[in-house]
Amino acid sequence: MARDSCLARVTAGVAVGGAVGGAIGAVYGTYEAIRYKVPGLLKIRYIGQTTLGSAAIFGLFLGAGSLIHCGKSY
Asked: What is the pLDDT along the chain (74 residues), one digit of tens a residue?
């Protein structure tokens, strides 16, 4: 497989999007859990749901953007 293949670019986009989305989701989930006073161990669940949701959505969009730009050469 070529080094700059379309699949490699899309995979890298999804990975970077997932990492950035997960980090932002963890920070935002922690903020909301404290703000809304989520009780006890439900904070961990709430932060985890927010982290995974943000990682999935941001990874999806960054992967889609990489796929759109895959055919363009600058």
From this structure: 556 789 999 999 999 999 999 999 999 999 999 999 999 999 999 999 999 999 999 999 999 999 999 877 66
Query: 22-48 burial by CB neighbour count: b if 16+ within 10 A, else e?
Result: beebbeebeeebeeeebeeeebeebbe
Q: Which residue has the tokens 């895959």?
A: 70
Q: How many Å apart are CA 60 and CA 74, to the nearest integer?
A: 24
On the CB side of 36, CA atoms within 13 Å amount to 10
**What's the pTM value of the predicted model, to 2 decimals?**
0.86
